[in-house]
User: Which sequence fits this backbone?
């Protein structure tokens, strides 16, 4: 059910961006970088959870006014019960303005998470999420997002809510 909800959000943003393309002018690609704090939730089949804290870096390029392509990497800053995580992924990001300096966005792509310590293993899967971004200045912005980074073969899952600061260059 949740996957259908996320798919609906991303589809709605995508449809809006397709309709908005008629209004846009030709511009060169804009690159951006973000650094985020991510308290990752790793849930295991027995319903136990650990929450290692990660630092996430995102590098992206606006393809047009409503679409971006992103590469993401994260690594553990603080372990929880000796569990660590390292992640990397590629995402397509439809986004649309809802007010002056405020955007809503979705993300869908592929992510691979390597879990270390007692939780050792890999979770590679489709990843998806949504969030909100607010411009502070022309070049700097803040962002909050919730992502489902994937499910493993034994029903373990990785997800989290992150806060990010970004800069356009």
Assistant:
């Amino acid at each position: 059910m949740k996957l259908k909800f996320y798919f609906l959000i991303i589809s709605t943003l995508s449809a809006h961006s397709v309709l908005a393309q008629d209004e846009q002018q030709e511009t060169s690609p804009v690159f951006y970088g973000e650094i985020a704090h991510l308290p990752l939730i790793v849930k295991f089949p027995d319903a136990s959870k650990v929450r290692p804290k990660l630092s996430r870096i995102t590098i992206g390029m606006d393809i047009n006014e409503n679409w971006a392509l992103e590469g993401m990497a994260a690594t553990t800053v603080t372990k929880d019960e000796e569990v660590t995580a390292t992640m990397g992924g590629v995402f397509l990001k439809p986004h649309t303005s809802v007010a002056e300096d405020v955007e809503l966005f979705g993300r869908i792509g592929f992510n691979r998470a390597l879990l270390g310590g007692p939780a050792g293993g890999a979770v590679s899967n489709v990843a998806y999420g949504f969030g909100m971004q607010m411009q502070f200045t022309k070049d700097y912005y803040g962002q909050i997002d919730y992502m489902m980074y994937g499910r493993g073969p034994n029903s373990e899952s990785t997800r989290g809510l992150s806060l990010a600061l970004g800069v356009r260059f």
